[in-house]
């Protein structure tokens, strides 16, 4: 099969590498253009481009892949199929028609759940026990085409987006190759794949910075899931308000866990006499409950122990290091 790869982010790299090593002919890579921010970066913003350059491929990076001249250029390559993964633009029907068999897309969820740009993040955020990958035969409607292959996997309790994403990227390699073989034998007329049930569709919109703001009225489980979901970006953050601070201090919470009343009772028994723990009923969501050995915050349902934190302008640190400075006082507020 004559293929054109569409990809930008790291999620696309394992699939791209497998195509380059396969018996298929990869004609070109289509990727997002480089945006010069004027700052030096330690890591590449486009690892798929790096892979294409190393392979000596023709690389196209249009700002709009659906423009007439781009579609014409793609059609002239006479590709059998487009392979799309972590690209960043929606291909129009005219663009998809530039390949004989249209396109397939490797998507990081079990469609029709979590259609959109951030499926892994939102699956963790909502506390899903499982996720997976889906290969769809593409239509102009976002993530709306028939499903060719699905593979499911468990979301482990402590996993974050950073740990699940590379695992799903590897999980998708064989299904992409299997889907290409399915389409190679397709007559172009008969029904192929499984139609998505629109009634089961959920959205996974692109993340915004404001998504990381912690709402302490939510339950401990929900907040812990948020912290796991929004790593590395936008992160999950709160503002520490105290009478001893001139202005609120932004705190990024990198890791946290549920802490039960038995653990808090143990802290009470082991702590110095100056550690004051008021009855739980007196605390409101967002208030500091414990500030010695642990930093425990009351939530809307339960309590949350912060394990890794990053004060504004400083490095990320274990909570013990943070508490050795001037820690929040019991009763201080963590707010939006």
Q: Main attributes?
A:
336 residues; alpha/beta; seven-stranded mixed beta sheet; 14 strands; 23% strand; elongated
Description:
This protein has 336 residues and is an alpha/beta fold. It is built from ten helices and 14 strands. The protein has a seven-stranded mixed beta sheet with strand order 3-2-1-4-5-6-7. It starts with a strand and ends with a strand. The model has no long low-confidence stretch (mean pLDDT 92).
Question: What layout of secondary structure does this protein have?
Answer:
Layout: E1 2-7, H1 13-21, E2 25-30, H2 47-54, E3 58-60, H3 68-76, E4 81-85, H4 93-96, E5 103-107, H5 119-125, E6 130-137, E7 147-154, H6 161-171, H7 173-184, H8 220-229, E8 236-241, E9 249-258, H9 261-270, E10 288-290, E11 295-298, E12 303-311, E13 317-318, H10 319-323, E14 333-335
Parallel strand pairs: 1-2, 1-4, 2-3, 4-5
Antiparallel strand pairs: 5-6, 6-7, 8-9, 8-14, 9-12, 10-11, 11-12, 12-13
Helix pairs in contact: 1-7, 5-8
Would you kindly provide a brief summary of this structure?
The protein contains 10 helices and 14 strands. A 7-stranded mixed sheet has the order 3-2-1-4-5-6-7. Strands 8, 9, 10, 11, 12, 13 and 14 form a 7-stranded antiparallel sheet that branches.
